[in-house]
Amino acid sequence: AYVAWASGAALFCGQTALTRAAFIFQGLQRFDLSNTVTIVLALLRVGGSVPLALAGMGLGAIASWQAAITIVASVVATIAVGRLEPEFRLRAMAFPWHTLRSHIGFSLGSQAAQIGMVFVADSALPLFVGVVLGPAAIVPLSVGQKFPAAVGQLAASSAQVFYSTVASHADSRRRVQEFMQLGTRWMAILALGPCLVLAIMAPAILDI
């Protein structure tokens, strides 16, 4: 249990550093680096966890692997950020309370709103379904939501690149209109294929 808790704490710290690096990559429009880190980390997590689970190593070993690979990825991503943009290198310095003081209210409000949205979107509906229809009804609900959420994430990732490109041409209304039309059409086409497959497979998925 202590190993799992320690691994969870390390995983949280590593994931926080990775999130910082990902936001910097996206702000610099280096989506190639952001996507590469995400894909490689996901593959390493699964590639290490599955053999450990099959070998019967238990939750502690899997949690330790997840934490270790996340810490390594966060270190690599942080070094990459420093090389790409030296201004974002982590340095030892006094905490700038005078700079953050005016933003604390906005930050706390944003965090509260985010926690509220996560609760409503991820917890409130399953809780309501479980109380009204029983715990067994939560499984098809959760399974049914996973696949549309994955399609939505695919569209969201595409939109990050698309809207950054549009913003770089904000001085030309004609170019913005062209990019908006082109990008919207291609995002719809990109999402249409998975949506058609889900519409066909939905009954079989919900029967699992």
Give a description of the structure.
- This protein has 208 residues and is an all-alpha fold.
- The chain is 84% helix and 0% strand.
- It has seven helices and no strands.
- The longest helix is centred in the C-terminal third of the chain and has 34 residues, at 173-206.
- The model has no long low-confidence stretch (mean pLDDT 79).
* Major sheet summary line: none
Write the H/E string, N to C: HHHHHHH
Per DSSP, what share of the residues sits in E-state strands of 2 or more residues? under 5%
Sequence stretches where pLDDT stays below 50 over 5 or more residues: none
What would the average pLDDT be, to the nearest integer? 79
Helix content: over 70%
Measured distance between first and last alpha carbons: 32 Å
Radius of gyration, in Å, reads: 21 Å
**What best-fitting shape do the alpha-carbon axes yield?**
globular
Structural class per helix/strand content?
mainly alpha
Can you count the helices? 7
Give me the count of strands: 0
Summarize the topology.
Elements: H1 2-27, H2 31-54, H3 59-84, H4 97-100, H5 104-133, H6 138-167, H7 173-206
Short description:
By secondary structure, this protein is mainly alpha-helical.
